[in-house]
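Protein in question filed below.

…
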Amino acid sequence: MLSRRLAALSTSVIRSSIRSKPVLTLPSLQFNPLQLPHLANPHTAFSPNAFVGFQGFRAYSLLSLNDLRDNVPRKQKTRKGRGIGSGKGKTAGRGHKGQRARKGSKLGFEGGQTPLRRRMPKRGFKNPFSLTFQPVGLGKIARLINAGKIDSSELITMKTLKDTGAIGKQIQDGVRLMGRGAEHIQWPIHLEVSRVTVRAKAAVEAAGGSVRRVYYNKLGFRALLKPEWFEKKGRLLPKAARPPPKQKDKVDSIGRLPAPTKPIPFLVEGSNDLPVQSLT
């Protein structure tokens, strides 16, 4: 496109020189087909009538409407089986007869011998009982409390952390409370999470708060985080599920539904305080 426009400009210049008509009447200006004529005084407004040989802005433009086209790839897709002129006609590059010339075989088939995926040794395994917890530090919780997004006088549950943006929206098996930023906790807070590290628990209890490890299954997490889903479907909230035997020693109590707002105190054996739903 650029070469075509340059050729048109050079042809117009040659024709104007044959007719002995100067392109520009000002001797102090030099004509450049790639640029517009410059003014002697840059502060003076440009007037096309001041130049006799000026053909307008279109004569110096390298792009016009007839040069516009779609952004199509330069190399089109090969059409097979559409004649011998393309080089991919008749057998369409498959050759004559045989299994590969017909429907073919599935991916990884090597003609009957043991395929590569079975010749290679196995390595590692995937634990079906593994749990994935989202980590959240005490420093982030402290910043949200200082910003006024979390009320430290109420119980901080996993729903509170999700609604305030402390954790992501995809909670697979729960939330793990980490000790990052534990020095920013200077007031008592009460939390209910799935797991807690030793450092985080010690920091919260040192400030006069408490951390309780609660258990929720997949359905329980949905009822905890999105109770409006059950109301929209016209269903009742499910009952809290009991933890499996392998997780009984890793949790303190069963999760409560709907999301609680008041913490449950840890009871001392033999006391007559509020009853807590036991794990047994």
About this structure: The CA atoms of residues 146 and 152 lie 9 Å apart. The first helix runs from residue 2 to 18. The helical segments are 2-18, 116-119, 138-146, 158-163, 198-206, 218-225, 227-233. Strands lie at 134-137, 175-178, 190-193, 195-196, 210-215, 253-254.
